[in-house]
Amino acid sequence: MKIDCYVTLSREKDTGLRAGDLVHELDLAGVDKAVAAPGEREMAVYNQTGNNFILSESRKYPDRIIPACTVNPWYGGKAEEILHYAFKHGAVMLVLHPTIQGFLINDDLAIPLLTIAQHYKRPVYVHTGGHLYGSPWQLIDCAMRFPDVKFIMGHAGATDFWNDVPYAGKFAPNVYIEGSYARPFTFMAHLDAVGIDRGIMGSAAPKNSLVYEWEQYQRYMPDDTYSSVFGANLAGLLGINKE
Amino acid sequence: MIIDTHTHWGIVWEDKYGTDPSEWLKVCDRHGVDMSALMTHRGLTINSDMKRCNDIVRETCDRSGGRLFPLATVHPDFGEPSLREFERCVNDLDMRGLKLHPWIQGFSTSGTVMDELCRLCGAFNVPMIFHDGTPCYSMPSQIGGLALRFPDTKFVLGHAGLLELWRSALSFLKRCPNLYAILCGPHFAGMTAIVKKIDENKLMWGTDFGFGWSDSIEYRKGLIDIIAMHDSKRTKIMGDNAVRIFKLKI
């Protein structure tokens, strides 16, 4: 089974993508499923609207689109309510974007949300690479405080924190490395350091072309060696059938 | 004619092959790249001998059969010797531009030596190519600021803002007629927006090939290939603009 760990669905003009178009892209790429999160606007604000949109779109293709959710921790108690609601209604992964949402993942502000994710046993995808709020080591610090939560290091620190990943990645076994934006030639080196069993494929579509990213990563990373990166590792985190 | 305007004679390549680019060029051949702008890698490190590193880049290009053309680098924090070295690179080594990497080299784009380098590049009519996309010294806005202050000099954003700052790059590219960009770093959507909204005469293509052993050309060549644009625009971005901006003799 091949699963794309990170795509966004939204109604934005330039970076919008709807469920039907996503499934078409998945078909072209030979990918079985994708985890979908809200787009940037609804990542920053209007979280509830974005989460509901994702749940709605995923219901159109329940076998292909896996709903994720997001919430901005600056909303405080309201954020916690939104997160409970999303998990109870089917969201399987929390996505946090410290750069867009304007917080540090290793700051106490994030603790209530991570506690909720831990309670529901949901993995947490954290965007990295942003220069103030996207250091891989910030995520490692957070992950060491929550050893029972599975974290996904979105974009593997790309672009400028690529050199931190091989070192930081070894510190917290509960952190998985997701390769969108890292480009295949760099992502492979990360996996050599932290282990293939902690690598996860994502396309970051529609900012990237889903079809092109999958074609390129599979070309660089032969399936007989890296097959778990293309699906099984993420399936294990999400608790879905790996076949 | 396909010209890769952002490559480095990587430390690993230099250590293994000296100034022989034969193996390096085989990678270019696999992807149909005709020419490449070659920049130093070792010369960006603070303990390097900048004269020696520029000589190595020149010699490597000389052994390429015309496939590689050299760009110089200096360390602005070294002061006056940097200015003299850059003059040597242009006058004696026929280097076609100045590459600066404020992040790795560790200097601010605001300073008197930087100002003088900007004036020199304008006087020589050779472009200044910057690493960009990275705080706190290599942001597109900082390079754009230089472009505003030195309107007679050509400035090139070596990465078009990378993943985080391509929107800022786009804004300054619109504002500054003397600011150019190499499409090497933004994601598909960012590159598509830049190609769509920026004067096609100001854009080039590059790969950052050579920093290590990995082949970054395949991915980045494939990425520009899937960005929709008119053939005439693609011809400019993939080569013709570089011929004009670097004054190449084809």
Characterise the protein shown here.
- The complex is a heterodimer of chains A (243) and B (250).
- In chain A, helix 9 links the parallel strand 8 (175-178) and strand 9 (199-200).
- The model of chain A has no long low-confidence stretch (mean pLDDT 96).
- Chain A contains twelve helices and nine strands.
- In chain A, the strands form two sheets. In chain A, strands 4-5-6-7-8-9 form a six-stranded parallel sheet. Chain A has a three-stranded parallel sheet with strand order 1-2-3, sandwiched between helices.
- Chain A has 243 residues and is an alpha/beta fold.
- Chain A has one domain (3-238): TIM Barrel (Alpha-Beta Barrel).
- Chain B is of the alpha/beta class and 250 residues long.
- Chain B has a single domain (3-245), classed as Metal-dependent hydrolases (TIM Barrel, Alpha-Beta Barrel).
- Helix content of chain B is 45%, strand content 13%.
- Chain B is built from eleven helices and eight strands.
- Chain B has a five-stranded parallel sheet with strand order 4-5-6-7-8. Chain B has a three-stranded parallel sheet with strand order 1-2-3.
- The mean pLDDT of chain B is 97.
- At the A-B interface, helix 9 and helix 10 of A face helix 9 and helix 10 of B.
